[in-house]
Amino acid sequence: MSIHGKARKVTTNTLQEMKHEGEKITMLTAYDYSLAKLVDRGGVDVILVGDSASNVMAGRDTTVPMSLDHMIYHAQCVERAVDRALIVVDMPFGTYQGNSRNALDSAIRIMKEANGHAVKLEGGSEIVESIERILTAGIPVMGHLGLTPQSIYKFGTYSVRAKEEKEAVKLIADAKVLEDAGCFAIVLEKIPAHLAKQVSEALSIPTIGIGAGPDCDGQVLVLHDLLGITTDFSPRFLRRYLDLENQISDAVKSYCEDVRSGDFPNSDESY
Ligand code: KIV
């Protein structure tokens, strides 16, 4: 708490201090105002406006079609709700690869139009020029290594990455490249726990894991998975804290029954 009794806002420096103190960092996705408000109230440190909105909100198979305009729309909705958490916004596929000027313009749009606090980009040495250019504008950058869903057509599957030594060695080198470039944190997605531990120990910036074992400096999950809103996605790393899929469809069923039977609305619910 600050001296004014308000919750202190989380910054990139806060995350650095948390790693230093050995305090775990919590991160969750949000894409809309109502859930972002609850997530922020729940005390999460970082809210990721993830391009997983492409799957979760838009029902697409991959994150590849996500547009910058849509990411900005989701980030605007989230930003209006959040008092405390650091808001990180995913840069969608095609807005930063291969053209650092384009990357900077895209990141500036996210900061100006959506009031984001930082951006996240997928990839290692191949996108470092874009990362460095974004950083020249004072925009904090979070990296993302391991399973990078925007490259699904290169990988061919969503299975665990960097199990083989060659890929693990590249991942360790990429993590160092991102740290040296100035990233403030790195997401490690779906890699062996021992590799995530090695990377987390080697870096001075925090790592945030998803399917990367317990030794990362923090953890992230997709909110809708944690809430059990859908059950068709069930990776081993996911812990469900609620079963909203059944609770919501039961509530909808009850409402339909009540309307059809004439029970709703009753006299107390009428003017
Ligand atoms: O888009 C997203 O939700 C992500 C997380 C899975 C880290 O990038």
Terminal-residue CA separation: 44 Å
- Beta-strand level of the residues, as a percent range? 5-15%
Strand order of the largest sheet: 1-2-3-4-5-6-7-8
Number of domains: 2
Shape: globular
For the CA atoms, what is the radius of gyration?
20 Å
Contiguous runs where pLDDT drops below 50 for at least 5 residues: none
Percent range of helical residues = 40-55%
The CATH topology label of the largest domain is TIM Barrel
pLDDT averaged over residues: 96
Could you characterize what this model shows?
By secondary structure, this protein is an alpha/beta fold. It has two domains: 3-240, TIM Barrel (Alpha-Beta Barrel); 244-271. It has eleven helices and eight strands. The chain has an eight-stranded parallel barrel, surrounded by seven helices. Helix 5 (100-114) packs across helix 6. The longest helix has 18 residues, at 244-261. The radius of gyration is 20 Å and the shape is globular. The protein binds 3-methyl-2-oxobutanoic acid. 3-methyl-2-oxobutanoic acid is lined by residues 29, 48, 50-52, 90, 187, 189, 210, 220, 222. Residues 29, 48, 50-52, 90, 187, 189, 210, 220, 222 line the site of 3-methyl-2-oxobutanoic acid.
Short description, anyone?
The protein has eleven helices and eight strands. By secondary structure, the protein is α/β, with parallel strands linked by helices. It has two domains: 3-240, Alpha-Beta Barrel (TIM Barrel), CATH 3.20.20; 244-271.
What order do the helices and strands come in, and which of them pair?
Blueprint: H1 12-21, E1 25-29, H2 33-41, E2 46-49, H3 53-56, H4 68-79, E3 86-90, H5 100-114, E4 118-120, H6 128-136, E5 141-146, H7 152-155, H8 165-181, E6 185-189, H9 193-202, E7 207-210, E8 218-221, H10 223-226, H11 244-261
Parallel strand pairs: 1-2, 1-8, 2-3, 3-4, 4-5, 5-6, 6-7, 7-8
